[in-house]
Amino acid sequence: MRKGFVDCELNGKVALVTGAGRGLGRGIAIELAKNGCKVFLNYKTNYEAALKTGQDIAAFNGIAELAPADMSKRDDVARLFDQIGAEGRLDFLVNNAGVNRRSTFMETSDADWDYVLDTNLKGPFMACQEAFRIMEKQKFGRIVNISSISGQNHGPKTVHYAVSKAGLNSLTKVLARYGAPNGILVNAIAPGIIPTEQTESELNSEGGRAYLDQTLLKSFGTVEDVSAAVLFLVSKSGSYITGQVISVAGGAYLGS
Q: Is 178 a catalytic residue?
């Protein structure tokens, strides 16, 4: 075991986190590395952000490797998994990369629909196909899809985003069936509004305040809350959980 790491079953495992340059992906990647995983840090265009995540991991002697790819494009995904294939194994896949273009139903263009669905749903589908090829040979794997409560409660101004996350929830359940015979567990985490760069404008909006009022805990969650759920699902503690969509949302929509 490398010096300074938590002595647990995650030490020495290999993980891929998509969209690892900032926000939830960055936090998840750092927590996996803190627990001894080698982490492939996927990013699309923001090299500087991904590099910063890698540097922060290196600062505590963690191991990370930059892994550029547009997760909405099959050729990029295949090239990314060729890079991972050189490692010889992949234990954990966290499909975190996601986008949104806020608009009402009637304002949503075909281009916006394709952009959001291609990244948020087609991307995880393709990544899971590639991951299954590796994990089936190992007879072991853990896949965690980062969904959203929008996929369960249908955000009124983001029809394409809500549909993409609802589809991701369905993909999670279907793939759990395919993965089970080969020891591949597939789950999803559905966060509420988590303060990140992506949600900054939403936090202080009318919709953000309304959301907060509708949570039981009357507070926004944190990146650490989501990271902890990912760690639980990939650890031995989560070894009897598959096909589930776990909300990390403070009881959203159950409040007043």
A: no
